[in-house]
């Protein structure tokens, strides 16, 4: 009997799911169930779309607007969604850095966060989970807390003595870190844009980042799902500039140069492949590979 594919992606804020693995999720949503769990409401996020900056209605209703944006993004991707209900910590800026506001997600007791995630994992029973690496993908306190809490929750979810009120134990088969901002990918886009137009919006990004090469474990072909990914990005209108970074690469060229989304296998109960995987569900018992 073929098992239903179930994939869970754990994210810090609304819009993270659309900029990290959205094509992959849209793809798997056509052949199984995909659920995004968002830790916070993004309440302390700034307006990042230049066309909307200074809009008083948005500034006064950021929480509700970001909830609506998330709902539209989930619909575009064809996925399920849950809020954990924690409060955005904001990104501390300045020298010295200001303290994180009390009550923020990154300051919540670890047990509280882990139990909330254990409930989600045990209820949805995913075979595959994606989350952030130990640096959070980038050093936002909420992203780092997502990593720490995710790893703890994945261990606790299959322990019958941990959080017994949070549902029946469940063991996830594979855990991946998102590697969408693979420097090799960004450098490929940068080079093509410089050659074709003489300028690239990735210049500053490359100058600020000093990433070492990534040993990618899985590379999922998603070019057929660029439209869903782009619709999800545009749904987060307060956060995504439709003329900016995420839309700089012409999609027909992107489909030729880099039609994939990249992931690093962090944990596995079903072994590892010597070759780069083409399906996050490879070797998961009862699931046919999606090639």
Could you walk me through the main structural features you see in this protein, from its secondary elements to its overall organization?
With 291 residues, the chain is α/β, with parallel strands linked by helices. It has helices at residues 16-19, 22-29, 56-60, 62-77, 110-124, 141-157, 183-197, 203-208, 226-235, 251-257; strands at 5-11, 32-40, 80-86, 128-131, 174-178, 218-221, 260-268. Strands 3-2-1-4-5-7-6 form a seven-stranded mixed sheet, with helices on both faces. Strand 4, helix 6 and strand 5 form a beta-alpha-beta unit. Helix 4 (62-77) runs antiparallel to helix 9 and helix 5 crosses helix 6 (141-157). The longest helix is centred in the middle third of the chain and has 17 residues, at 141-157. 43% of the residues are buried. The model has no long low-confidence stretch (mean pLDDT 94).
- Strand residues, percent: 15-25%
Output the strand order for the largest sheet.
3-2-1-4-5-7-6
What overall form do the CA principal axes indicate? globular
End-to-end Cα distance = 19 Å
CATH homology superfamily name: LmbE-like
- Low-confidence runs of at least 5 consecutive residues: none
For this structure, the CATH topology is Rossmann fold
Compact overview of the structure:
The protein is of the alpha/beta class. It contains ten helices and seven strands. The protein has a seven-stranded mixed beta sheet, with helices on both faces.
Topology:
Blueprint: E1 5-11, H1 16-19, H2 22-29, E2 32-40, H3 56-60, H4 62-77, E3 80-86, H5 110-124, E4 128-131, H6 141-157, E5 174-178, H7 183-197, H8 203-208, E6 218-221, H9 226-235, H10 251-257, E7 260-268
Parallel strand pairs: 1-2, 1-4, 2-3, 4-5
Antiparallel strand pairs: 5-7, 6-7
């Amino acid at each position: 009997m073929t098992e239903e594919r179930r994939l869970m992606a754990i994210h810090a804020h609304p819009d993270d799911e659309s900029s990290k693995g959205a094509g992959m999720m849209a793809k798997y949503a056509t052949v199984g169930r995909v659920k995004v769990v968002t830790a916070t409401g993004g309440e302390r996020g700034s307006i990042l779309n230049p066309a909307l900056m200074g809009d008083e209605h948005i500034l006064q209703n950021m929480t509700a607007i970001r909830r609506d944006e998330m709902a539209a993004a989930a619909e575009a991707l064809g996925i399920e969604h849950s809020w954990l209900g924690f409060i955005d910590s904001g990104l501390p800026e300045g020298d010295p850095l200001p303290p994180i506001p009390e009550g923020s997600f990154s300051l919540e007791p670890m047990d509280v966060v882990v139990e909330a995630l254990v409930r989600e994992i045990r209820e949805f029973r995913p075979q595959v989970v994606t989350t952030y690496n130990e640096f959070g993908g980038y050093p936002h306190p909420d992203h780092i807390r997502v990593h720490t809490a995710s790893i703890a929750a994945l261990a606790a979810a299959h322990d019958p003595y941990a959080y017994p009120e949070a549902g029946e134990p469940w063991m996830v088969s594979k855990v991946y870190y998102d590697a969408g901002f693979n420097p090799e990918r960004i450098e490929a886009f940068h080079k093509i844009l410089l050659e074709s137009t003489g300028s690239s919006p990735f210049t500053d990004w490359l100058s600020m980042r000093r990433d070492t090469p990534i040993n990618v474990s899985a590379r999922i072909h998603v070019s057929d799902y660029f439209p869903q990914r782009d619709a999800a990005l545009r749904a987060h209108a307060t956060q995504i500039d439709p003329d900016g970074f995420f839309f700089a690469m012409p999609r027909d060229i992107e489909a030729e140069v880099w039609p994939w989304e990249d992931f690093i296998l962090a944990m596995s109960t079903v072994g590892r492949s010597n070759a780069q995987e083409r399906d996050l569900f490879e070797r998961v018992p009862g699931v046919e590979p999606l090639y």
